[in-house]
Amino acid sequence: MGAPDLKARHAWLAQEIARHDVLYHQQDSPEISDAAYDALCRELDELEALYPELNPGAGPSRKVGAKAAAGFGKVRHRVPMLSLGNVFTDEDVEDFLARIRRFLGGSPDRPVRLLAEQKIDGLSLSLRYEKGALVQAATRGDGEEGEDVSANVMSVSGIPKALPSGAPETIDVRGEIYMTKSAFSALNMQQEAEGKPLFANPRNAAAGSLRQLDASVTAARKLEFFGYAIGYCSAPVATTQSAIRERLESWGFSVPKPHICTDNREALQKFYGEIQAARASLPYDIDGLVYKVDDLALQERLGFVSRAPRWAVAHKFPAEKAFTKVLAITVQVGRTGTLTPVAELEPVNVGGVMVGRATLHNEDEIARKDIRIGDTVIIQRAGDVIPQVLGYLEEQRPKDALPYVFPNLCPVCGSRALRESGEVARRCTGGLVCAAQAVERLRHFVSRGAMDIEGMGEKVIQEFWDAGLVRTPADIFSLEARNKGSLTPISARDGWGAQSAQKLFDAIAARTTIPLERFIFALGIRQIGEATAKKLAAHYLNVRTLMDALQRANDRESEAYADLLSIEDVGPSVADDLIAFFTEPHNITVVEDLLKHVQPTDYVRIDVSGSPVAGKTVVFTGSLEKLTRDEAKAQAERLGAKVSGSVSGKTDYVVAGADAGSKLKKARELGVAVLSEDEWINLIG
Ligand code: IVH
Q1: Is 137 helix (H, G, I), strand (E, B) or coil?
Q2: pTM
Q3: Overall average pLDDT of the 5-32 stretch
Q4: Is 119 a residue of the active site?
Q5: Separation of CA 222 and ligand 1 centre (Å)
Q6: Which of 40, 251, 342, 673 has its Cα between 20 and 30 A from that of 125?
Q7: Domain-by-domain residue ranges, the chain?
């Protein structure tokens, strides 16, 4: 780049970063991935390091509100940092308790002692202490791996730098780092006085303050910490959650107060009401309560599903509401062609966040609520969920407001949009002809849980789509080769340079091998989320086996179909979508083209080499006495077995409890080994 180019690039980067800072920190609506943002910051820093004259002021030109700037090391959590399931009503709490009782067995009114405390609206943090000294602090990240923010937390006064003697040799203390409401207001006043962007809420301010490459910036911000859990620990510290609270306090941590420990539903309800009433006057933000099974041995038995424990739940406070005007109603087309109506709103502040759009869900909802352009509506925001329109104010409706007519043509490609009987969604029939669907599918393909191609965010996909550079997933992998001989290389595009183009090519090349489950998820098949993709990978192990089996399963009488249905999470409807995907010629072409570039690695089961049931398929039937069905299942899966709901020639064991019926009969017919509950317990030791 020549001097004028460098100057222009520098100005563009600085402006673009500032714009994304505002989107992220003030509007809570980032347009690009963290990775893409980091790439911009990195490029700016590199430019300024090479050409200091570009930025005559001392220090980097971006000072405020940078999110996860590059440069934080990664920390793998020894014990994953889980998230929590949410409940909103008393019935939901009842269901949560019922699930616990069912899992643990015993009578439906077996007492379950819960600890209830405030749910702090901050960022979770894991603090590692070794031989009593604080040695590391990490953010949650994706739960498995977070960012090393050790240098930043050293200045947080509420985080003890040492534990008293008697604490375990190695221990991870988990809790929430947050900013008080008053510190947040003071910070924003200072920001304003200095002409810097404001933070939207205390959580964003805490996040922006913690994730600073320059730890002295963090030190200047007032952050606080509450402890509430233990992660990895070399020796047990307690047998109950309430005792953990006590230990944490005795070691110098603050814990959220007050709390209760009870097995009484009314006491829980009363506590919820009291804390909700006190919420506005608390010095910090909370967004609900957390209920945790007090007994740690029971927590251990209950374990977790996906990323949330069975033994804890967040009881959220009702969402925050606001009134505003509907300026327009637009229709978005999603990855699977679903048409979603969206209310374009006069921007309004809802609980600290500016909201300009809200979902109207679908055709029936918009008709049922009779929302019209020009209406004044009530909108609500619940946590990070997209805001919803609850209803309109009749007395404020303009006289000429007309009922909304839902389109029956796709607003993007003009194909017919059909609604299949029994479905709420109207879908565009354009398939990959429809730009919206193809672009959405590509976006999904490169997204985080899928192929996770760094630097290839939504905007880049749209840009490459518009330029005709990428139309199918395989095109992404041939970009670099096509770029080589091109007269209009990517590096010559607006906003790109040789360095950023090469960075992108490298990120793409890094994904030419990918775990099978990620590959399956990336294909964007209807109803196939990350969890089901993983189950499919665990079942078929290899991409060719999977494709072959799903094509054979098209014959609903085949063994392949029965085998498909034996996978947990796969019912007839999911099976239909899978088969439909893998028997559609266009999709096969797309996948085959992709497989010329990408090698999905075979699924590897966790090391269960010592397990007598690893790789075996087990069916539980009849009522078990010592274990509940859920517990037996979770235990079998932990030991590497596949638990199936139906008996077939592939079943290795049928564990039959009392009153076993047709499955036991079928097992006998097929000559499958049948075990009693005791025999099963003996087998797994
Ligand atoms: S216990 C298995 N207690 O809420 C997770 N979490 O939305 C156990 N949080 O990731 C967490 N206050 O960061 C617990 N008193 C509290 C909490 C709390 C806030 C956070 C935590 C968690 C998130 C889930």
Answers
A1: strand
A2: 0.52
A3: 69
A4: yes
A5: 21
A6: 40
A7: 3-62, 74-316, 320-396, 514-601, 617-684
From atom 13 of ligand 1, which residue's Cα is the shortest distance away? 124
CA of 175 to the centre of ligand 1 (A): 7
Which of 84, 275, 313 has the most ligand 1 atoms within 8 A of CB, as the residue to mutate?
Answer: 84
Which residue, judged by its Cα, is nearest atom 21 of ligand 1? 124
Q: Exactly one of 119, 222, 616, 663 is catalytic; which is it? A: 119
Q: Is the pLDDT of residue 142 over 70?
A: yes
Which class would CATH give 320-396?
mainly beta
Instruction: DSSP letter for 413, please.
Output: T
- Are 613 and 640 in contact by the 8 Å Cβ rule? The answer is yes
152 lines ligand 1 (CB under 6 A): no
339 touches 417 (CB < 8 A): yes
What fold characterizes domain 514-601?
DNA polymerase; domain 1 (1.10.150)
Is ligand 1 within 6 A of the CB of residue 314?
yes
Q: Does residue 309 line the site of ligand 1, with CB under 6 A? A: yes
Among 592, 667, 656, residue whose Cα is nearest residue 624: 656
d(CA 253, CA 227): 6
Query: Buried b / exposed e across 405-427, counting CB within 10 Å, b at 16+?
Result: ebeeebebbebebebeeeeebbb
What homologous superfamily does CATH list for 74-316?
DNA ligase/mRNA capping enzyme (3.30.470.30)
CATH code that applies to domain 617-684: 3.40.50.10190
Dump pLDDT digits (tens) for 233-266.
999 999 999 999 999 999 999 999 999 999 999 9
CB 543 within 8 A of CB 519: yes
Give the integer Cα–Cα distance in Å for 332 and 311: 38
Average pLDDT over residues 447-462: 90
Q: In the block, which residue shows the tokens 């966790």?
A: 606
